[in-house]
Amino acid sequence: MRKRDFKVVVIGDSGVGKSTFISALINESLNKVTHIDKHQPIQLPPEMFNHPQCNTTLIDTKCQPNQLPEQVKIADVILLMYAIDDDGSWERLNKFWLRELKEKEFKQPIIVVGNKLDLMGLDEDREYCRIFKVIKQLVKDFSQVEMGIECSSIKLQGVQDVINCAQRSYLYPLAPLYNLVNKSLTEGFKKALTRIFRICDRDGDGKWSDFELERFQKKVFKKHLDSSDIAGIKDLIEEELKDDSNKKSFITLQGFMALQKRGIELMKIQISWTILRYFNYKDDLTLEESLFQEELKFDQNAGQTVELSDFALQKLKSIFLLNGQTLTQTQFNYIFYPVMFQTNFPLLQQYHSESQQITLTQWLALWNAFSFFNYKDAYKLLSYIGVDIKISDAFKEQNKKDSWHSVQKTIERKVFHIAIITKNKKKILEKYFNNLSPKITTIKSKTYVISIYDELQAEQQIEISRLCIVDFLIIENSCRFQTEQLIPITLYNDDEDIYAQISKVAELIHTNTFGYSENQIQLLKQKNGVSLIQIASVIALLVGLTSAGYYYFQFKPFKKSK
Fold first, then answer.
1. Is residue 559 part of a domain?
2. According to its record, what are the GO cellular component terms (predicted)?
């Protein structure tokens, strides 16, 4: 694991022993007695503790009663200290410190530290665990409290253990994964495990075979599982689930989650975080943004578009078929369950015509339309739902439309964007679309996205990306809208159903002229065309270079090798 810098801030009432605690740590590190008079950050030697990858800075605090110290804002872990021999001190944990931290919405892990253990009698210490009594209710009331520990700063008893616990809470925080009150996995952790399970389900059957489990183990932990290891894992799952649903030749997602829950309860939270970080999760259980920085190179201004590759569409088809021949709304929502951000993926109602069940055609069309306008958002969404694919494999760049030769490749595309430009009928059309624009439909296995723009919107946007990738314009008669871009155009017919008009446009797009006027075709043929003079010049240059090379090697003597 890479080096990680983190700050531990010690807070608590005056007199609980905060400065003495820090002095004790310094004494152990320097092997001599010293006293800390000023409240300054202390860099602790990494080799003293169980996690040398942590560069730990310890910060003492001093503040007025009933006031949180400013240093809390920069803390990665908070040590909240109280005096074991003072009932008023531990009562203040609930009445002030934790309540104030909660109200101010501090989210850092909190470790409750009982100091002055040396003042308690040994017999009393054996009778009951004071820290458990203190922590039990605090954990229920304050989710950031992860654990409690006792120490003696004077006797140097347990002070290093406190820092070890702080480092552990920082490296492997419990709160994002496990609810101590309900003794259950958090929703965020379940979402992450669902994605990981899907990625490692190589055959897409919704279960892990023994081979897939072993492959997962090798990938994440670089260790081999034998048959007895696999049997032991299934025994643990059976104990947790209290059934034998995973005793066969596979492990279910429920079994995988049960295994993680048991591991956390056995204090093996490090295992869960090792899995999460291997699959690029951050501490807040969102994916590393570096995964989504790569961009495709294509010329959008020349009308070039990006579409899902056949490989990506096959992956999406497999996800669909895992749920049957159609999807209910509940199944549709479950596919997107692992997503940890607000997505603008099209609503089902944006598809024409609407149906109660989601068909495979509808499913793929929604993805085609979404990717057409923003492939980077589509790639991020693919990653979250469990499609493990490189961005270069997920998409393909389609033809430009800046010359007649390029336009003639239009037939290869799967997605087309049709814009309706209107002056007086925008509200009528939007109502016809149930106020859901753009609308998406499928005609002869091709996806068509239909957007509505009023005349002013079109004038403002026609020269920017949204309308640079328009494949066809349907313009209302009363519009004065014109464009110099070479986009095929037809007039809106008031007496004909809009989808009947869309079907006619689809037919035009796939004719020999692709809906372009004769004038537009001539301009396309001229644009970016290569003249005969240019071709002759290139040939002459190549001949000249070839001849020069021939004469150079014909008459230049070679030197003998030594």
1. no
2. mitochondrial outer membrane
- Contact partners, residue 301, CB within 8 Å, separation at least 6: 465, 468
Q: Are residues 146 and 96 in the same domain?
A: yes
Phi and psi, residue 127, nearest 5° = -70, -40
Identify the pLDDT of residue 562: 39
Is the pLDDT higher at 367 or at 138?
367
Residue 557 confidence (pLDDT) above 50: no
Query: How many structural domains does the chain have?
Result: 4
Closest CA to 35 of 57, 60, 9: 60
Read off the pLDDT of residues 434-473 as tens digits, 9 standing for 90 and up. Answer: 888 899 999 999 999 999 999 888 888 766 656 678 999 9
Please count the residues of the chain: 562
Encoded amino acid at 17, one letter: G
SS3 percent helix, strand, coil of the chain, rounded to 5, is 45, 15, 40
CATH number, position 91:
3.40.50.300
339 shares its domain with 429: no
Q: What are phi and psi of 178, to 5 degrees?
A: -145, 135
pLDDT at res. 394: 97
Residue 287 one-letter amino acid? L
Asked, as a colleague might, if the bond just before 353 is cis with ω within 30 of 0, I would say: yes
**Run of H or E residues at 148:** strand 145-150
Within a domain: 197? yes
3-state SS, residue 420: strand
Shared-domain flag, residues 156 and 8: yes
State phi, psi for 535 to the nearest 5 degrees.
-65, -45
Same domain, 73 and 163: yes
- The answer to whether 453 and 421 have CB atoms below 8 angstroms apart is yes
Q: Higher confidence at residue 3 or residue 332?
A: 332
Q: Which residue has the higher pLDDT, 356 or 514?
A: 514
User: What is the rounded distance in angstroms from the CA atom of residue 547 to the CA atom of residue 562?
Assistant: 30
Please indicate, yes or no, whether residues 327 and 393 belong to a single structural domain of this protein.
Answer: yes
- Segments forming the whole domain that contains residue 129: 4-171
Provide the whole-model pTM: 0.85
- Residue 91 sits in the same domain as residue 64: yes
CATH number at residue 379: 1.10.238.10
d(CA 512, CA 336): 41
Q: Are residues 352 and 325 in the same domain?
A: yes
> Which of 37-46, 56-65, 416-425, 532-541 comes out lowest in average pLDDT?
532-541
Evaluate if residue 384 carries a pLDDT over 90. yes
Burial of residue 373, with CB atoms counted within 10 A of its CB: 0-12 exposed, 13-18 middle, 19 or more buried: buried
